[in-house]
Amino acid sequence: MINAKRSIEACAAFYGDDSKDMKNYLLEGEKAALAINNRGPISFDAQGNLAASIRNAYSENASS
Question: Are 51 and 32 in contact (CB under 8 A)?
Fold first, then answer.
């Protein structure tokens, strides 16, 4: 797994007085992303469409 800590800190630094809040927001987003089944390479079906397993995982985890 990629350690995004440095990237998150660098991005948050651009938000000045709000950098702490932005860092927390980004860390929570990373935590949420790691909690869902979204790992693995991209794959396609025989017709060239995005694999059903990927579409289904998106539908299950997409915000309304």
Answer: no
